[in-house]
Design goal:
heterodimer, A: 423 residues, alpha+beta, Immunoglobulin-like, Serine Threonine Protein Phosphatase 5, Tetratricopeptide repeat, 3 domains, four-stranded mixed sheet, 9 strands, elongated, B: 360 residues, mainly beta, Methylamine Dehydrogenase, Chain H, four-stranded antiparallel sheet, 55% strand, nuclear estrogen receptor binding (chain A)
Chain lengths: 423, 360
């Protein structure tokens, strides 16, 4: 149960009511006071004071002063009239309750309205501020544009002027040229002297109208040109300078940002060449160098050159077991098989080499040509001439300028036609 | 970097934009005139040369010349002011010199290279410098050849690979050091980042270096003086300025480098009227105007007492983006300070005016 505060004192004038409410030691804040048109409540737990006012008041303008242990209310009456008492005397419970509820509702509505009004006002202000800034910026931009326009126009005018001067300059030059032509008949020295005299006089006249930079330049250069031609050194003795370029693997231009990627690719390529199929138990018997496919390839090449075809095949076989991704091994083994007349094996190896030589780039052109030629030869020796011709033609496509391939292709064509006629 | 601030900075004003119906690879001012030349390749794979004249706020087409092969580059550097013949390199490796008044038959023609001529430069003409007029061409076949228009068919100097097979594309060439009749150097940049300096008097390689990115453009600040500065631009937005006054026997030339933007820097061109200002054009369609400042001392002694150069510093005066496509060619007018023309791969050629260069 709240403690009712009843020791209030009040006095009134025609338009206002002054109410003084002592607080028994409690401290009041604005939140504790609730006031509406006809209802006044001060609630400071556990104290409570409420009054249903005699007549409506203007609650927006009324004030409450908190201080010195009491609250001093200044309530402005809506209708100036003297009140019989501060509160309504015969207020029953229900009426009081209704009044209270209404008061609360009204207060809430008011609060809502106030916030709405505030929001709208804020937006208005923002808009205004924005428009103002936009205007200022526009003005700035326009000022700069104007400056630029002025510059542009000034500069365009200057240019016109300069251009016209150039045109005049050209005209005079052409006149002088014509004068030159008239005097071509006389001997050289006399011609020069006369030119000097004649062109000096019109030159003085023209120098004023020309740009400073071309003053006198035109005429002086006309005959100085002739003098110069006699003084020009003879053409240089032809020579060649040999140039060494910083090595670069890729055909594309060097870019700093790609260097890292390129290095990685080259590294990978190098790695791929060194992979060893390591589950070969015989590897332990071999010497270190015999495990290197490149070394074995070289060995094979040497033996082929010396005519030891079987030995070469052995070397290549071992190399292939170590690394079956190197196209050159198959290519060279195919050549060996051709010499040994193992034609089917030659065809197999050339095919395998061609498979490995994809993608077809200028780098592996030569290798592909060889592969096609070897396979073609094998086919022909097996008397499968059409297949052989196909390979030769493929080789020609890659390298159209090779005469040997051309001749062989021709021979095969004749052979085919010969066999077709006879069969 | 010192700063030239605010309204005092040079402005790049785009004066005229001209849309073309072909891809323009090179644009050049005709010396002593308000005319410019555009060289390129039509969609059909034929060459086009167009001669324009400045006419108020637009370009007036004076002449259009068609050639069987697309043209990649051209220069007026080796002709006299009277003749103003244009030397061009085309996609087939032919070097031709044309008289623009009578362009049907070239004045000089040679099939100089087996592949496209990427870059051409001329020296000894236009009343600048001394010595014989010469043209140098750099090609995708890896060779750099120097031609004299008075000698047919064979080059007067040929810089080719020593190792037979191996070759790198030569992307750019430039003449320099032509301060008297005998001295001359050719600088060549390759796609693997090599820059080589060939001395034509001694017929040897004078200096070489590698800047780790393909070299798109090299230019000396002046062709007709003792070598002073060399700017080399490359892929990946970098360019290097070499101080060419002092050559150290092992360290070569001192340099300062700058990374201007993320894309390739296609061209560098020095202002003819001020050799410390140059413009670089980029793959993102932008132009940057730079100024080089010399250091307090241009050379110093290293630990062994040998002279070595000291590089200066660069400051960016202005930058502007004109296009979405790379600006592949750039040329300053030798007659009007600040007037320049640039051609971009969006098939437009633009005439620009750079203001306030007097105040730099």
């Amino acid at each position: 149960m709240p403690v009712w505060l009843r020791e209030h004192s009040w006095r009134q004038t025609l338009s206002a009511v002054y109410l003084s409410l002592p607080l028994r030691g409690a401290r009041a804040t604005p939140a504790n006071i609730f006031c509406s048109e006809q209802y006044l409540k001060v609630s400071i737990p556990p104290f409570l004071f409420e009054a249903v006012l005699y007549a409506p008041i203007d609650d927006t303008n009324s004030t409450a002063k908190i201080g010195n242990g009491n609250i001093f209310f200044t309530l402005y009456k809506k209708e100036p009239a003297m009140w019989d008492s501060l509160t309504l005397a015969n207020a029953d419970k229900e009426k009081l309750q209704n009044l209270r509820e209404n008061a609360v509702l009204k207060a809430q509505e008011k609060a809502k309205e106030e916030t709405e009004a505030k929001k709208i006002a804020k937006q208005e202000h923002k808009k205004y501020a924005l428009e103002a800034t936009m205007k200022v910026e526009e003005a700035e931009r326009k000022r700069i544009e104007d400056l630029k326009e002025n510059e542009r126009q000034k500069v365009a005018k200057e240019l016109e002027l300069w251009k016209n001067q150039q045109k005049d300059g050209d005209k005079y030059k052409s006149i002088q040229k014509k004068e030159e032509l008239h005097q071509e008949i006389e001997p050289l020295k006399e011609r020069k002297n006369e030119k000097m005299n004649k062109t000096q006089i019109p030159n003085e006249g023209t120098s004023k109208t020309r740009l400073k930079s071309t003053r006198g330049h035109g005429s002086s250069s006309i005959f100085s040109q002739n003098l110069k031609e006699e003084q020009l050194p003879a053409p240089r003795a032809a020579a060649t300078i040999k140039v060494n370029f910083t090595p670069r693997v890729f055909p594309t231009a060097l870019r700093e940002s790609r260097v890292a990627e390129e290095e990685e690719w080259l590294h990978k390529q190098a790695e791929a060449r060194r992979i060893i199929n390591s589950d070969l138990s015989e590897l332990e018997d071999l010497k270190e160098e015999e495990k290197n496919p490149d070394w074995l390839k070289d060995k094979g090449n040497k033996m082929f050159a010396m005519g030891d075809y079987l030995g070469a095949v052995n070397a290549y076989n071992l190399a292939v077991r170590l690394n079956n991704k190197l196209p050159l091994l198959y290519l060279n083994r195919a050549a060996c098989h051709l010499k040994l007349r193992n034609l089917h094996k030659a065809i197999e190896d050339s095919s395998k080499a061609l498979e490995l030589l994809t993608p077809p780039v200028p780098d592996n052109e030569k290798a592909r040509v060889k592969a096609h030629v070897r396979r073609g030869t094998a086919f022909c020796q097996l008397e499968l001439y059409t297949e052989g011709l196909q390979d030769y033609e493929a080789a020609l496509k890659i390298d159209p300028r090779n005469e040997n391939i051309e001749k062989d292709a021709e021979k095969i064509r004749h052979l085919i036609q010969g066999t077709m006629q006879s069969s | 970097m010192s700063a030239v601030l605010g309204p005092e900075r040079p402005q790049v004003v785009s004066h005229i934009q001209q849309a073309l119906s072909y891809t323009v690879f090179d644009c050049k001012w005709v010396p002593r005139s308000a005319r410019l030349l555009c060289l390129g390749s039509a969609a059909r794979g034929t060459g086009v040369l167009q001669l324009y004249e400045l006419h108020g706020a637009r370009l007036e087409l004076l002449r259009e010349i068609k050639k069987p092969k697309p043209i990649k580059c051209g220069t007026f550097g080796a002709t006299s002011l009277q003749q103003r013949y244009l030397a061009t390199g085309d996609f087939d490796g032919n070097l031709n010199i044309w008289n623009l008044e009578a362009p049907e038959i070239p004045v000089y023609s040679v099939k100089g290279h087996k592949e496209i001529i990427n870059s051409i430069d001329g020296v000894g003409g236009l009343g600048i410098g001394e010595g014989a007029p010469e043209i140098v061409t750099g090609s995708r076949d890896g060779t750099v050849k120097v031609w004299d228009p008075r000698q047919n068919d064979t080059p007067v100097a040929n810089m080719e690979s020593a190792q037979g097979d191996s070759k790198r594309d030569c992307w750019t060439v430039a003449f320099g050091n032509a301060y008297n009749q005998e001295e001359r150097v050719v600088c060549a940049g390759y796609d693997n980042g090599d820059i080589k300096l060939f001395d034509l008097k001694t017929m040897s390689v004078r200096w070489e270096t590698n800047i780790k990115n393909g070299v798109c453009s090299v230019e000396f600040d002046r062709k007709d003086i003792n070598m002073n500065k060399l700017v080399a631009t490359s892929l990946e937005g970098k360019f290097h300025v070499f101080d060419m006054k002092t050559q150290h026997p092992t360290k070569g030339f001192a340099s300062v480098s700058e990374k201007a933007q993320k894309s390739t820097i296609w061209q560098v061109r020095h202002l003819p009227q001020n050799r410390d200002i140059f413009m670089t054009s980029g793959g993102s369609g932008s132009l940057h105007l730079w100024k080089y400042e010399y250091p307090a001392q241009r050379s110093k002694k290293d630990s062994e007492g040998i002279e070595m150069g000291v590089a200066g510093s660069l400051s960016l005066l202005q930058n502007v983006t004109l296009s979405t496509q790379p600006i592949s060619s750039l040329d300053w007018s030798p007659d009007k300070k600040g007037l320049c023309v640039c051609g971009a791969f969006d098939q437009t050629v633009r005439v620009l005016i750079v203001t306030k260069l007097n105040k730099i």
